[in-house]
Fold:
Amino acid sequence: DVQLVESGGGSVQAGGSLRLSCTASGAHESRYCMVWYRQAPGKEREAVAAVGTDGSKDYLSSVKGRFTVSKDNSGNTLYLQMDDLRPEDTAVYLCATDRRTGTGSACRYSSGYPYWGQGTQVTVS
Structure:
């Protein structure tokens, strides 16, 4: 099994920044896809950003240029730097992973991830 723990959420004003972290433990390898999702009340869950096996990154169009996804050197912690936050970014942010590999785009567009963190709330006012 894989365990994921997120941290870093909070409340900020529009235009502010937050940095989220997601640390994987257990049967996780640095080459596996890791994806940030978000879910706002009344909306479908959407894949926000992902880092692929080759280090490539892919983003939801509405966050391009504002959010930056990265991993630490061990490949077990996923970050999401969120700048110029907007009220529409308000959501619960969750990270997901699985024993699968691919490019950042392939990882982000993939579905059926079985391993999820508990989520962290981001509120932008």
The first strand starts at residue 2 and ends at 7.
